[in-house]
Design a protein that fits this description.
By secondary structure, this protein is mainly beta. It is built from one helix and eleven strands, in the order αβββββββββββ. Strands 1, 2, 3, 4, 5, 6, 7, 8, 9, 10 and 11 form an eleven-stranded mixed beta sheet that branches.
Length: 165
């Protein structure tokens, strides 16, 4: 159990180490530019169940994962181990997903983070909010290695007015 806890914490640490997100060609960044991965990861949930057959762990009920200024919350998060049993393959957050970094926030119905490819896919009524501006779409795919993001599926935005100037 101690080894599984270490593996879960290692995978969750990778989740919250997210460099700047950039919307393709728009210069939209997301949150704190650097996260200190040596900071502790704090995980809380109402329940946790471990599947001994495949090593997966399901965190349910007000899941909150915090590291530094990065915060992920969801109704539940499934931690899926690699088939060969060595490390985390992906994290699947479902229900009221909220990713916050500094003063920026992205919300969606669900999000999947594939560790090896460094890809986060947020789906279902995605809403990115930063400095009073909003971008929305049905899906946002982010490569955290390159920092590039793509919004797709009826992309919409709200731009502030000129204020009479």
């Amino acid at each position: 159990m101690r080894r599984l806890t270490f593996v879960i914490l290692f995978g969750l640490t990778a989740l919250v180490h997210t460099p700047a997100l950039m919307a393709q060609g728009t210069g939209v960044s997301f949150g704190v530019l650097q996260t200190d991965t040596s900071q502790p990861v704090d995980i809380t949930s109402d329940n946790m169940s471990v599947n001994q057959e495949d090593g997966s762990a399901l965190l349910t009920g007000s899941v909150l994962i915090i590291q530094g200024e990065m915060r992920l919350s969801a109704d539940n998060v499934l931690v899926v181990r690699r088939a060969e049993g060595n490390g985390i393959e992906r994290l699947e957050a479902r229900g009221n997903v909220l990713l916050v970094s500094g003063e920026d926030a992205a919300e969606a119905r669900e999000a999947d983070y594939t560790i090896e490819s460094g890809t986060v896919v947020m789906r279902g009524d995605v809403l990115l909010t930063q400095q009073g501006n909003t971008l929305g779409a049905e899906q946002m795919t982010v490569n955290i290695t390159t920092g590039n993001a793509t919004l797709s599926g009826r992309v919409r935005t709200t731009l502030p007015g000129s204020g009479g100037n």
